[in-house]
Amino acid sequence: MTHAIIPRAASRRDATSLPTGWVAARARLDGLPGGGLNIAHEAVDRHVAAGHGAQAALIWLGREGERQELSYADLAADAARFAHVLRAHSIAPGERMFLLAGRVPALYAATLGAMKAGVVVSPLFAAFGPEPVRARMEIGEASVLVTTASHYARKVAPWRDSMPGLRLVLIIGDEAPEGCVALGPAMAAAPDRFDTHPTRPEDMALLHFTSGTTGLPKGVVHVHEAVVAHAETGRLALDLGPGDIYWCTADPGWVTGMSYGIVSPLCNRVTMIVDEAEFDLDRWYAILERERVQVWYTAPTAIRMMMRAGAEAAAGRDFSALRFLASVGEPLNAECVIWGQQTFGLPFHDNWWQSETGGIMIANTPDMDIKPGAMGKPLPGIAAGIVGREGDGIAELPDGAIGELALRPGWPSMMRAYLGQPERYAKCFVGGWYLTGDLAMRDGDGYFWFVGRADDLIKSSGHLIGPFEVESALIEHPAVAEAAVIGIPDETAGEVVKAFVTLKAGFTPDEALERELRGHARKRLGPAVAPREIVFRESLPRTRSGKIMRRLLRARELGLPEGDLSTLEGDSR
């Protein structure tokens, strides 16, 4: 079925009221006194200098019910203290600091303090095991680690002696094991003012790691200039502005939790909600209601889990403060968009970007009508196209054609390198385009539609089948909570579609339902595209950032090597 267009939302502010473009966006930032650009200065110090130090910057909600509020002045002071701690241990600008901790206030002070000191920040998932932590710290040539005593004992201590470059381990709290430094006392003894290191726009600021299907993780390099895009895209795509109550549910261990869980909201002077706990439906609904959240940025996985619980779970709640809902992490099915409208009175706005792009590139913005299931349109300053190979070069394809999503290079948050892999980086740029590896289609109205990763495409009897199309059709059935689709070999067709689904509460996984789902898919998609087989699962393998790992399903189905599993959330077999 084709879903009706949802008219544009009523934004609190007119997203087009200010001049757009990267020059205008840069002019909205202060820059360092005397020249230069530093993310931490734009995120906190300039607001304090402008008289906004008393505003709440961060409201931290502890796992056990604690609640702590930090003002912009508090956060600036803590960042300064942390920068002094680094200097006291002879950590120089340009060295790399890794973060291995949950969503606790010290992580935010450490992130901003390191940037003030010109030290590069590399976040890690707190749920990583010893080997993923070690691999990333070795690739990134870590000098500093900020972590907890328990993470250190289990994940770092056994191999620390093999990494002599790791000169400083800061333990969050008031006590530390031998060979480490307790962060609490060190911060308490440090001054609360620090002259920000005069970083230049092209100095490295962030090092994010992203996993491929094989080989070691890639270190994606971002620079201080990225703050121009962080700030501007938060304003345009998420409708952020001074004083907003904003909740990004992403963990800072992945790129969304850094770009839009720390940098962008602080640059736009919002009050951030930070929840230490993991997903819990009642807790999340209570936070939205109690904290009067206005802008909420979450993941399709969480939305589908809420859908699975049913609208009655949200009944009786007061969500009247909500103004704008957005989603990121993987494509957003049309049913999720419509469910948001039905449950919250607001649709979820999808957007698209990657670790490599550093910030949102394509979005359904507040001033756009929404086509449920579409990624949206390129933001101002972003030139996007659909391209295909033509000999040794690249040719742009017409509207309606499926090809690789590509971007014209030059936006401020574009990755500057894959650390230590210049040839791999160079392969991303062909014919004046950055090639994303995602397949998409642009319609006649300029909206982009996700089809799938290039390596997820299914080729069956001459048809090119995008998994997302099939998954979206299955999710439209009232029994289906989530779906993942892969291609499996077939002697006649080359490949046929196999689907894995999880069910909503109250539905029984039996042969009758499997036949009903296949019939539903054939009616929606036609027999050439619909799944030949549907398997019911309790859960689907996904990364900790919420993306379903289709390639892992395929590897396990066909007995192929499973590749890098360091970002796998649990082991969903």
Quick take:
This protein has 573 residues and is of the alpha/beta class. It is 29% helix and 24% strand. The protein folds into 3 domains: 33-224, ANL, N-terminal domain (Rossmann fold); 245-453, ANL, N-terminal domain (Rossmann fold); 457-558, GMP Synthetase, Chain A, domain 3, CATH 3.30.300.30.
General description of the model:
One of its GO terms (biological process) is acetyl-CoA biosynthetic process. Residues 47-419 form the AMP-dependent synthetase/ligase domain. GO terms for molecular function: acetate-CoA ligase activity; ATP binding. This protein is an alpha/beta fold and 573 residues long. The protein has 3 domains: 33-224, ANL, N-terminal domain (Rossmann fold); 245-453, 3-Layer(aba) Sandwich (Rossmann fold); 457-558, ANL, C-terminal domain (GMP Synthetase, Chain A, domain 3), CATH 3.30.300. It is built from 16 helices and 28 strands. The strands form 6 sheets. The chain has a 9-stranded mixed sheet. The chain is globular. The two termini are 32 Å apart. 50% of the residues are buried. The mean pLDDT is 90.
List keywords for this structure.
single chain, alpha/beta, Rossmann fold, GMP Synthetase, Chain A, domain 3, 3 domains, nine-stranded mixed beta sheet, 16 helices, 29% helix, AMP-binding_CS
